[in-house]
Amino acid sequence: MKYLSLILSILITTQLPSLAQTSGNAQSSIKGDFALKNVHTGKYVRIKDANSSNGTPIVAYSPVNWKCVTWEFQPTPSGAHTLKNLFSGKTLQPLHGDPKPGASLEEQPIGTTKAQEYEVIPAGKDQYYVKLKGTDLYLTPSDPDGATNTNILLQPKQDGDLQRWTLIEQHPTM
To answer: Which fold has domain 28-169?
Structure first.
């Protein structure tokens, strides 16, 4: 009986967490500094013109290893993430904190609204959906052709790979 209890204890502590991670809706716990690269366009998510002013638009930009395109993924107690920009120290949120379909993203200080937490959801091998927590809205480039400095929006889920992202680990110096 003592051994059965020990075996059950080992199974519970080692197998249940891995089973939770493999469910279809399991959220990924990611920690570190990454660029968000769109699968469809190949563009990164950036604060426009490396401007650290509140309200600066969040846009698509060519791949570079700069702080203004690098986001520190900070896990939250709810299992979501706050994305802190390495250049500005701020995060992205819907324009005026209003999470609605088609809302552009802007840069704001962390903690100014509830609309700053994102769920990072596995979407295939090394790909993710990035969804605003508590909504059905996903990070989406406004231009499917990938024009530089076009807005990143929040949109309902779509078919295809326009809302899929890869995480590129970065350690920028500028």
So the answer is: Trefoil (Acidic Fibroblast Growth Factor, subunit A) (2.80.10)
d(CA 15, CA 166): 27
Residue indicated by tokens 């991670």? 21
d(CA 123, CA 131): 12
Question: Residues 54, 18: contact at Cβ < 8 Å?
Answer: no
Please name the amino acid found at residue 44. Y
- Exposure string over 121-154, b if 16+ CB within 10 A, otherwise e: bbbeeebbbbbbbebebbbbbebeebeeebbbbb
Convert the pLDDT of each residue in 99-145 to its tens digit.
Answer: 999 999 999 999 988 899 999 999 999 999 999 999 999 999 999 99
Instruction: Report the DSSP pairing between strands 117-122 and 105-108.
Output: unpaired
* Residue entry with tokens 């779509």: 158
* Cα 81 to Cα 76: distance, rounded to the nearest angstrom: 5
- 69-108 residue pLDDT tens: 999 999 999 999 999 999 999 999 999 999 999 999 999 9
Q: Where are the domains of the chain?
A: 28-169
Q: State how far the alpha carbon of 125 is from the alpha carbons of 129, 154, 166, in Å.
A: 12, 23, 9
